[in-house]
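Much of the work behind modern protein science is quiet bookkeeping, done one molecule at a time. The fold becomes a row of whole numbers, each drawn from a learned catalogue of backbone shapes. The protein below has been through that process, and both of its lines are reproduced in full.
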Amino acid sequence: MSDNILTPEFGESYVGRALAPVDAVPTPLHTVNASCRDDGGGVGLARGWFVVVGGNPGFGKSILGLNLAAEALRRGEPVGYASLEMSKFQLASRFYAIYSGEPAWQIERGSFNRHAWDRAFQACQAAPSEDKPYLAVPDMLYSLHDVLDFMSREREYRFVRWFVVDYLQIVGVGDEDEINRRVTEVTTHLRQFAVQHQCVVIALSQFNRTTSSNYFESPRPQGLHGGMILEASADLVLLLDHSRMERQDHMARSYLLIAKNRHGPLGEVAIEWDYSNLRVRECIPAEEPHDWPTHGSARK
């Protein structure tokens, strides 16, 4: 079946859709939100979008994923977080710090502070009873089937429509060809899930060896580990720039690259990590751009 998009009837349906409320979930980064046009409406990530966040190991990829999840929860969105590398307790300690702003080390095992924990957990319970945050974290997952089964259950029984998968490459083992094959399979299924069920699906990804070892040039989508399927399938590709990361004490600065955008402009976002509470924020206009690091900073 097809439509003649030049008929008055189609024109009326187009206007009705354009004037309908935007059903999108904001991120904590206003530049990313503004770049999400079409169904994103300049508000945030739209239903049915598959988003890839790429980064080097140890450069804040999972922390960024948790910050995105925390913002969705603040907006009243139930979230499913499928981690293939962290236990639910490891993930919980990081999330409590991000959501509450309490020092991460005070709610971790070995340096646990009961007062800090009480404040952190109360912050997670502060919403009205009907709007209590819901963050589903399964037991350790080992396969694509486990991930999809978790997402399907949460969507059906808890009406979760916002998911993070951390991270893609750990689903596959073996040589380079086998990993590429598995990443292709995982990506295809996650993209299909997002579109079919009108969910936001954010997949965290590592870079390939060549890109991850290059500290003098900004990464590109072609450097994602697993082949071009990741770039081709994504509505949005966001890359953490390890070539311009600079860390001092508990603070770190770099750029998040909007490297592919099917629904708006490309660009880059100056971001800062506070490793005391693991929060990520965007540079504000009053801050000078030259305060942010240049290429090769991570090697200084």
Observations:
- The radius of gyration is 20 Å.
- The chain has a mean pLDDT of 91.
